[in-house]
Write a structure and sequence with these properties.
7 helices; 289 residues; mainly alpha
Length: 289
Amino acid sequence: MRKFSTLVGLSAFLVAGSAAYYSVFGLSKLFSGATLAVIIMAGSLEFAKLVSASFLYRYWTKVNSWLKYYMTVGVVTLVLITSAGIFGFLSNAYQGATIEFEKQTAILFYKEDRLAQLEEDKIYLKDELEQSVNALPDNYPTAKRQLREEYNPKVLEINTQMLEIKQEIGDLKVLMIETGVDVGPAIYLARIFDTDIDTIVKFFIYILIFVFDPMAVALVISYNVITHSEKVVVRTKKIKKIKKKNGIRKSKEIVINDNKTDIIDNDNTDIYEEGELSRMERGGVTPSG
């Protein structure tokens, strides 16, 4: 029992401590203009939240209703604030891991749009050249050749730009694969559920904050339940009769509890066996202390 209560207390300390750290860090990033002040304020509130939860459990029936309900609302509000701080911390960590990936993704979209535009320009030039050549009579071969010579450099320039952009897109995709290793699981899950990475990460962050700080408070209360309800079990037994005087035998007692074993000398306590007290009373002997 004692080992289990220690495990519960250790779990409560670890979960509450880590939740407090992440919450304070997230809030300090949100209010970066006064980082030290926010750390002191948020840290004291985190400590007060756990103490308040313990206080409410121990003295729920002994405090005034207004104080009881106010502290309950305060604890719930602090849980929400802590969860918001944890959300900020995890969001900041996610953005730090994906900011380069997002930059590369934006560049990739731009280059793909540029490539599509060049494709359209190339098709437009070819159509324009075809219409211009067809508009000339068949007995104007020189003019047709001059038109083709005029349009060919433009088409070649577009082809060169398209080749360059295609090469850049290929290199960028390889680089994105290397960069995306940090968020590979999120990318994989996004593909499975046919959604974007931000939605997947947001979903997991919500799950974490749903169980993180509420679990810390629940463990603190659970530890209070265990420690408050533990009862010391005391058992006694006679181990040896040590002296006999006036027909009255005295003994020592061994008292065993959860913490230690004590031997108590009952010099001032008389212990009578069954039938002995009746014989003493019939003989006119009064038991003495």
